Amino acid sequence: MSSSDFEWGIKNGDLEKVKEAVEKGVNVNDPIDGRIPLCLASDYGQLDVLNFLLSRGADVDVSDKFGVSPLLAAIYEGHTKCVQSLLKAGAKKDGRAPDGSTYLEAAEKEEIKALLR
Predict the structure, then answer these.
(1) Half-sphere exposure for 105 (CA within 13 Å, toward CB)
(2) H, E, C per residue of 27-45
(3) What is the pLDDT of residue 4?
(4) Where in the sequence is the domain holding 79, given as residue range(s)?
(5) How many distinct structural domains can be found in the chain?
(6) C-beta of residue 42 within 8 angstroms of C-beta of residue 79
(7) What are the start and end residues of each ANK repeat (predicted)?
(8) Which residue among 36, 48, 95, 106 has its CA within the 20 to 30 Å range from the CA of 67?
(9) Closest C-alpha to 77, from 113, 44, 50, 116
(10) CATH no. for residue 105?
(11) Distant-in-sequence, close-in-space partners of 63: CB < 8 Å, separation ≥ 6
């Protein structure tokens, strides 16, 4: 399975395709074109994929080539359930966005702000 198939599975929430890739040896922490798989799942709001990647040892506090962590990706896109899952998995709330703003400042949704306080 190619990394593009793995990436497609992550972005589109195809959990079976993601599982198949991991079972065939794809490392859940290896970047795809500079983006971390967990960041992609967070960015696209794919909660089931995100939880699977976490269960397979995905690093919650790594940043991609843009300086965006999985938690920040979920915050930016307003994916509350992904934010909750990442925090439960131990993601640090006190990070900063590439522009220097705090995660709390980057959040627009009140329910996400409440999770970050």
Answers:
(1) 9
(2) CCCCCECCECHHHHHHHCC
(3) 85
(4) 3-116
(5) 1
(6) yes
(7) 33-65, 66-98
(8) 48
(9) 44
(10) 1.25.40.20
(11) 36, 39, 69
Averages of pLDDT over runs of 10 residues in the chain (117 residues) are 83 96 95 94 98 97 94 97 98 95 96 96
* Cα(44)–Cα(1) distance, integer angstroms: 21
CA dist 4 and 23 (Å) reads: 16
CA angle in degrees (0–180, nearest 5) for 95-9-30: 50
Query: Rounded CA gap, 102 and 106, in Å?
Result: 6
Among residues 14, 24, 12, the alpha carbon closest in space to that of 2 is found at 24
Residue pair 74/82 in contact (Cβ under 8 Å)? The answer is yes
Q: Can you give the pLDDT at residue 1?
A: 52
The predicted pLDDT at position 31 comes to: 94
